[in-house]
Design goal:
mainly beta; binds flavin-adenine dinucleotide; six-stranded antiparallel sheet; 43% strand; FAD; Riboflavin_synthase-like_b-brl
Length: 176
């Protein structure tokens, strides 16, 4: 069984600055559901929610880079279920992480579980788990391909475009 921790690690960002990291890549941390909002639904009627989870300390940051993702684990119907999600909040946000989740209508797993969580409930989170690291300024042009909730990491790239640099971005998106 994985050890649960509230231990605070540090991570170094792309500019070499050290930050406190709320999560650990190999150990679970309890985070608290702070906000749950239905933002849309798919053509087939699956609701799409934004979930905001608070870290144990409000000054902590996610500790991962855009392009990486996190894992969430819960005990559902006596089974340990672990799923991966792409943060839609920015790595520099303090005290919380947000994810965008399509709730499968028949879900017996995590998306259904998340949609039934009450504000204030805790769940285990770990990260960064994997992914690639996008470095702002590396590219002048970007082509983003996504489908369904694969849009989630693209939203984060959109946020990064706030940086005072000029990019040419093409986004191809399909949702059913
Ligand atoms: C890198 C990565 C990033 C992701 N990011 C997002 C995101 O930002 N937003 C989002 O909505 N979804 C994301 N997903 C998908 C997400 O991890 C879940 O698969 C999704 O929420 C459905 O989970 P569920 O347990 O509700 O599935 P259910 O509808 O309950 O699952 C139906 C069946 O499929 C199986 N199943 C479903 N998902 C998985 C899985 N991941 N691994 C093994 N078996 C599975 C279940 O065991 C079950 O038998 C991401 C997946 C990956 C790999």
């Amino acid at each position: 069984m994985n050890k649960i921790t509230e231990r605070i690690e540090t991570f170094t960002d792309l500019e070499g600055i050290k930050h406190k990291s709320a999560l650990h890549p190999n150990e679970w941390t309890f985070v608290t559901l702070a906000k749950k909002e239905k933002v849309s639904s798919t053509k087939s009627g699956c609701p799409i929610y934004t979930f905001r989870f608070s870290f144990p300390h409000e000054t902590d940051q996610l500790g991962s880079f855009s392009g990486q993702y996190i894992a969430i684990q819960a005990k559902i119907n006596n089974k340990i279920v672990k799923r991966f999600y792409s943060p839609t909040s920015t790595p520099s946000d303090h005290g919380f992480v947000e994810i965008l989740v399509k709730v499968n209508l028949e879900s017996t797993g995590m998306s259904g579980y998340l949609s039934k969580m009450e504000i204030g409930e805790k769940i285990k989170m770990m990260g960064p788990v994997d992914g690639f690291i996008y470095k702002p300024g590396n590219f002048k042009q970007m082509v983003l391909l996504s489908a369904g909730v694969g849009l989630s990491p693209m939203i984060l790239f959109q946020v990064l475009l706030i940086f005072p640099m000029k990019y040419h971005v093409s986004l191809f998106f399909e949702n059913s």
